[in-house]
Amino acid sequence: MGKGSSGRDGTSAKVALILVGSSFGNVFADDVYNHGDYKFLITSNDGEKRHVTTMLIQLGGVPVIDYWLLTAQQSKRLQALEDNLYIVANKDNIDEFEAWANDKYKKRLWCNEATKFDREYLNTLQDVAALVTEKGLDKDFTHLCIIDGNCCFSPDFNLTRIIEHSFIRDTDAITTFKMPKPTSIAGKLTNNTDKVVVHVDPNANSNPEVFAIDEAVSPSQADNIPEDSYLMGNVYYVHANSVSALVAAANNRENVSISARFAAGSMVDFFRQRIADGHKVYAHECKHVLCLNTLNQFKFADSFFKFYASQVRKAMEDQKQKHNDTNMAENFKTEFSATERKKKEMYDKYEKKLTQTNHIIPVYVVKQELARSTLDTDQIMTEFEEHYAAISSSRNSEVTLRKSGAGGAMQVQPQEKKYTLPQRFCDTSTWQHKPVKQHAVFTTTNSNYGLKAPTPQTMPSLFAGINGSFTNKFPGLYKSSGFTTAKTTSKVHKSLDDF
């Protein structure tokens, strides 16, 4: 039995990438509406309820969906991407995806025909199952890589590693990340979202096996979660042998746990059932998951991507300056280690690639491989949190949360804006306009401001008369002050010809 094929020919198995962008962004839209700013993120047309298309909002100038597509292009298993890609949208935001997509990706859009007016809400599991059934992905032995668009990883995220390990191991897989510290900004921003604790093998070096998955924990009970716990991410790998079970789980709506009350919770129930049935599920640890469920989470993620891009540019300039040094360049082969030479080659390679794209693609996207090998994301995140905390305190934009409803869900408290008159305008006696007097020799009119009156001294001798007034004739000897084009001859050298 070949690895990654489950008894079939390895070349017959393929991996389909499913980007789930069918979320309406209810909490996000309410935050934007209550906050008063970022109204441009709400893209509701006439006849549609207020919603935010999370996958199309920009982080550091790049839409979230473009970030996922550029990450997926690094994986050979997903190529050709335009043939193995499926984008799930709802009936309210399908027009927005069509406006974003080019001719290549418009054919990969799929609508679940759900609107915000529908009483029966479709979750991630039901969306994926309906897509699989309609496209026949459960018939041609296809592995599924499912990405929920309500979250985003840091720029050093390696999707290729997850797909390759899962393909070789021939099993299902999920992504996990360590629970952020409650005192950190990332921890405060995730307090208002449900959390799913994952129990993994503590003795495994990397990619451990999952022993159990707990039900989703509400924000009111999040304090009971240990700090060293692993939480479930938003990237899932479903083996081809498990696709039929995924479709069956989506059709079974009788046993719905507390996890299924939010969109991605249905995937939690599916993997919990797979583990209970004796199937192996492995976990891939990722760093720095950036949720996009609220406005404050979006502002944090957007600022982080911009800060990360500035750090990459700074590293490039430092590396370029280092290797442009004359003394070091002469002794490059002897004094530089193999690691330093490899870094320089990578910088030159990606600098050339960035120049070819005319800097359209951001630095942090083009240089993902470079960032993973030369930059410390943990250190950058630590520096950014300090930077973000200073900016937040100076702008008086600290995160304010309040409880609402019986479930104790946390929502953004709209801040009261204070409109006060600046100190320089408090004294009404200073409101009178006092024009500044101009110099006496300058002429000031509506058409000419600060124009000096013409005088004979400012006019060339060609146009000025003897008496200093304008004339239409030349009473004296005509004298031209123009440019002389005649060839000149040196009389000194001409006299030397006589000798």
TrEMBL record:
Native source organism of the sequence: Chloropicon roscoffensis
Gene Ontology CC entries for this record: axonemal microtubule
PANTHER family recorded: PIERCE HOMOLOG (PTHR20899), PIERCER OF MICROTUBULE WALL 1 PROTEIN (PTHR20899:SF1)
Matches recorded under InterPro entries: Nucleotide-diphossugar_trans (IPR029044), PIRC1/2 (IPR026507)
Broad class of the protein's primary localization: other
Keywords assigned by UniProt, alphabetized: Cell projection, Cytoplasm, Cytoskeleton
The protein, known as: Uncharacterized protein
Subcellular location: Cell projection, Cilium; Cytoplasm, Cytoskeleton
GO biological process, one term: axoneme assembly
Family indicated by similarity: Belongs to the PIERCE1 family.
